[in-house]
């Protein structure tokens, strides 16, 4: 049976203030209820997860934007995968380029992935090149990032992960600057081929490949129909419930 398509809202540090965040959560939950063919995941700032977890109601799932590389111990400011699970979170974004830019290493990403899986969370592993060169150098960068990030993951756990292809050059721009459906199609095939060769699994055991980088109402439909992906990781457009609803509608079909 085909997997459900998935749309994940990465709110980053938005919206400003508790009241607005609560309103956004309620509005997006109502949109998600309308588009039942899509699995909708909302990732607010972590301080809100515990409260929002009580408001999930089956229409949306909750995701964290990060998790600790450690199971527990003296790491001030970190929070654990087991605690996320205990409060009702089921997804976690790992290795986002904005965290990698703050110093997160492939090793830390790999440990986070392992802990997420161990604790029953679905990790969303973000990979993506800084720029596309005409010689295709970016493909080896992508390959290396993918394999290093996955080094802590066993073959049997591969299908428990989601891989988000997020080219850095496309993040935080507009639909016109995002990847084109044909380039996305090729890149998604490339990622699948790399994983099939490396892990020798059947295609049905591959992780879902999704796309992130300026997904907006204007490009969601063409990217989902021709991009060879199983969903989206949506940044800025997820801060507007109307836009986010349009994206859910396109994916719902
Ligand atoms: P964007 O962000 O949709 O604003 O490009 C995507 C992301 O960073 O996950």
UniProtKB/TrEMBL annotation:
It catalyses: D-glyceraldehyde 3-phosphate = dihydroxyacetone phosphate. Keywords: Cytoplasm, Gluconeogenesis, Glycolysis, Isomerase. The keyword Isomerase applies. It comes from the Bacteria. GO terms for biological process: gluconeogenesis; glyceraldehyde-3-phosphate biosynthetic process; glycerol catabolic process; glycolytic process. CDD domains: TIM (cd00311). Coiled coil: none annotated. Its EC number is 5.3.1.1. Pfam families: TIM. One of its GO terms (cellular component) is cytosol. It is found in: Cytoplasm. One of its GO terms (molecular function) is triose-phosphate isomerase activity. SUPFAM superfamilies: Triosephosphate isomerase (TIM). The keyword Magnesium does not apply. Pathway: Carbohydrate degradation; glycolysis; D-glyceraldehyde 3-phosphate from glycerone phosphate: step 1/1; Carbohydrate biosynthesis; gluconeogenesis. Belongs to the triosephosphate isomerase family. Homodimer. This is Triosephosphate isomerase. It comes from Candidatus Zambryskibacteria bacterium RIFCSPLOWO2_01_FULL_45_21.
